[in-house]
Amino acid sequence: MPENWSSSRLDLHLDLAAEGGRRARLEAALREAIRAGRLTAGTPLPSTRGLAQELGLSRGTVSAAYDQLAEQGYVITRPGAATRVADVARAPRPEPPQSIRPGGRIRHDLRPGRPDLSAFPARGWLAATRRVLDRARPEAYGPGDPQGRIELRAALADYLGRTRGVLTTPDRIVITSGYYQTVQLLCRVLLAEGRDVAALEDPGHDFYRDTVRRAGLTPYALPVDAQGADTGALAVGTDAVFLTPSHHYPTGVPLHPSRRQAVCAWARAAGGLIVEDDYDGEFRYDRRPVGALQSLAPEHVAYCGTTSKTLGPALRLAWTVLPPDLVAPVVRAKEEDDLYTETLGQLVMADFIATHAYDRHIRAARLRYRRRRELLIAHLSAHPALTPHGVPAGLHTLVSLPHAGPTEADLLTACADRGLALRGLTELHHDPADSPGGLLIGFAAPSERAYPAALDALCAVLAGSFR
Ligand SMILES: Cc1ncc(COP(=O)(O)O)c(C=O)c1O
Q1: pLDDT for 253-293, tens place per residue?
Q2: Is the Cβ atom of 244 under 6 angstroms away from ligand 1?
Q3: Which atom of ligand 1 lies nearest, measured to the CA of 178?
Q4: Which residue segments constitute the domains of the chain, with CATH numbers given?
């Protein structure tokens, strides 16, 4: 007989057994809640009068159950004060999984693509939240717009135009819950139009390749060389091409200007869609970032951004700037998928951008990541056999390995043995047999304090492996 108790302070689900007297059943249910850690040490229990009323018991029954628990040491009663849960030993809660492979724990996080979460601008975010809630009208707490809050779309239209050269108005923007969802929505719309052949960079992000495949499209490999994706290799009949033009994932090369032109010419001639994943476009360290490809062909590019690298993936907040004819179908797909993205976070993000707190946060992060990348490159220079790839940008560096020497698998094992997490290149290739092997070393994930130790651990592995 499950019951809910609510008092002025807390709610608790109590599973009152079907068998036994009323006092015994209440006592057992409270004891179980304390043992399981659902009622923690110091928590005040409701007054005997309040609980009796809620559960339809007599006050004497509740009082007797509390007395029993006090005698057994589960609660502490004091005259004139609330009865409180005592500090009793209980089964430990399971630790969240953190393994890099079964049995291993991450001590140093050099995984690519992860920002420094310890630098999340919590104060600024809190201040923006306060401002938003102070001003919010009741409708802010009501149903949202499948396209996204106009406040955020307006702020993004300004911001993306100013920082990335994106040509847009707020009505061309759709807010989504991550690039992951953007890809799913675009694929669904393409498929509904009978367009199902997609070119994906090889190597490229395996997760998004799987997402495209799961959505029902047929992805094929578009080779990548020192100039980025080989746009000349786009096959006849291609409906869409997924690119990371400002900083190819994972090699780190920007798409060559001639290829930027070429892929736009292809889109115009073939009526194809370019999906521009600008996942880390804010982070360029040697010069101003190359502007978005979208500005060359706004009628043919779905430009996609995310907060996952700038603030943190926890927000699940992203956007896409669409060709006009795709807006309505994508908004419809969004509504069918999950109605709309959580809206208060959108309002906070709009404020965060409009007050330039986002710019300040990104500028500070850029400076820190630049220094970290320089430090990584300096450490790697002790091993001339290792070649870092790509331009100074993003949150990771790809390092290719010499032919003679330890393999990618050897190095990943040696890293895992030291609790050092990073990624290998091979799983990012469409066909792993094509991979020359390499290490993707992220330099953003650790906190400022933890980064030097992570680099030391990496250097120790490299020194042991390249003697
Ligand atoms: C290449 C690439 N694009 C986009 C994203 C962002 O994805 P999301 O917005 O779904 O977190 C990531 C994050 O891992 C990424 O590595």
Answers
A1: 999 999 999 999 999 999 999 999 999 999 999 988 889 99
A2: yes
A3: 9
A4: 2-85 (1.10.10.10), 108-114+360-465 (3.90.1150.10), 122-355 (3.40.640.10)
